[in-house]
């Protein structure tokens, strides 16, 4: 599989790298890092990493515009994205000459001429480190930094349980090989604005916790305004509510007025919650899922379902 992917990268002159909407460091690191590595290996290629520019993760680098690029003879590699509707910056994947999907989410859409899916992999960035070291792609420090940040971020600093000996082995190889100063990268990755930290304090003070270990909170637009944050903030905070003795599953519902949806950020320390979120048009990983709701009344149903999930688990 990895050899096949390498062959296609070698074969195509024009390569577009895409990832999911709502970019995170794994999505950005895999597209922008792979771009660095392909260009480091083959000097004469045209490589574009697409998707909306993320100012929050500006240290990951800029994205490319392909609106004027003829893609009919291009290779498309879709990274970290299980479903076609969530691909950012590409309207129609069928317009590309060849499509490769590399992902670690449970399968949703079957697409791509080659699909490399490893649900056990901690991150797509981890899969790419493996791809580089198992083929003739050449690692470079810039690419290595981005892949490193993707792994660190998706594993929540090696805390999540899909962190494996393989994760450490590949990260060791990467750091040892490129000599990147990886501790310096944490300054960018983990710096937070005070307004967000204050919002976290509000969430911790005000979330409701049931006897079954289910915790939730609704954040209205009014509250977001009061703290001077936007609707994306809850996604940055939700992982920090882990390891609380009385809480098994926790959810933040955030009113997103701009997009006219309610964002759902859910995490679990045991019960599988992705199945519940899928019922409401969302999904993700077994213990880390999300959704975007059109109807406010669905909140009640999710609360009921997750309460039940916790109860059954106990
Ligand atoms: Mn990922």
In summary, what is this structure?
This protein has 314 residues and is of the alpha/beta class. It is built from 11 helices and 12 strands.
List the helices and strands and how they pair.
Elements: H1 2-11, E1 14-20, H2 25-41, E2 46-49, E3 75-79, E4 87-88, E5 98-103, E6 114-117, H3 124-134, H4 141-154, H5 165-178, H6 182-190, H7 194-206, E7 208-209, E8 214-219, H8 221-227, H9 233-237, E9 249-256, E10 261-268, H10 274-279, E11 283-284, E12 288-293, H11 298-313
Parallel strand pairs: 1-2, 1-3, 3-5, 5-6, 8-9
Antiparallel strand pairs: 1-4, 7-8, 9-10, 10-12, 11-12
The structure holds manganese (II) ion.
Manganese (II) ion (MN) is lined by residues 26, 80, 104, 123-124, 154.
Characterise this structure.
The protein is α/β, with parallel strands linked by helices and 314 residues long. It has two domains: 189 residues, inorganic pyrophosphatase (n-terminal core) (Alpha-Beta Complex); 120 residues, Diaminopimelate Epimerase, Chain A, domain 1, CATH 3.10.310.30. The strands form two sheets. Strands 1, 2, 3, 4, 5 and 6 form a six-stranded mixed sheet that branches. The termini are far apart. 39% of the residues are buried. It binds manganese (II) ion. Manganese (II) ion binds next to loops. The site of manganese (II) ion (MN) has 6 residues, from loops.
Question: Keywords, please?
Answer:
inorganic pyrophosphatase (n-terminal core); Diaminopimelate Epimerase, Chain A, domain 1; 19% strand; 2 domains; 314 residues; six-stranded mixed sheet; alpha/beta; binds manganese (II) ion
């Amino acid at each position: 599989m990895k050899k096949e992917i390498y062959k296609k990268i070698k074969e195509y002159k024009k390569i577009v790298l895409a990832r999911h909407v709502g970019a995170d460091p794994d999505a950005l690191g895999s597209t922008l890092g792979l771009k660095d590595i392909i260009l480091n290996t083959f000097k004469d290629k045209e490589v574009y990493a697409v998707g909306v520019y993320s100012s929050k993760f500006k240290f990951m680098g800029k994205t490319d515009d392909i609106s004027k690029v003829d893609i009919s003879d291009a290779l498309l590699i879709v990274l970290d994205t299980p479903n076609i509707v969530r691909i950012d910056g590409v309207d129609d994947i069928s317009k590309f000459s060849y499509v490769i999907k590399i992902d670690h989410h449970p399968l949703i859409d079957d697409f791509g001429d080659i699909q490399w899916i490893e649900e056990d992999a901690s991150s797509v960035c981890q899969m790419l480190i493996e791809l580089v070291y198992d083929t003739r792609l050449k690692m470079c420090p810039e690419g290595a930094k981005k892949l490193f940040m993707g792994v660190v971020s998706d594993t929540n600093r090696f805390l999540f349980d899909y962190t494996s000996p393989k994760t450490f082995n590949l990260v060791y190889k990467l750091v040892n090989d490129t000599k990147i100063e990886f501790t310096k990268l944490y300054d960018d990755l983990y710096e937070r604005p005070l307004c967000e930290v204050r919002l976290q304090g509000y969430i911790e003070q005000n979330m409701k916790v049931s006897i079954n270990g289910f915790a939730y909170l609704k954040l209205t637009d009014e509250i977001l305004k009061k703290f001077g944050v936007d609707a994306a903030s809850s996604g940055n905070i939700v992982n920090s509510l882990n390891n609380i003795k009385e809480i098994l599953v926790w959810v933040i519902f955030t009113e997103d007025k701009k997009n006219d949806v309610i964002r759902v950020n859910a995490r679990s320390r045991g019960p599988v919650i992705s199945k519940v979120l899928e019922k409401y048009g969302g999904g993700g990983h077994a213990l880390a899922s999300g959704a975007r709701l059109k109807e406010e009344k669905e909140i009640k149903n999710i609360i009921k379902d997750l309460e039940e999930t916790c109860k059954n688990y106990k």
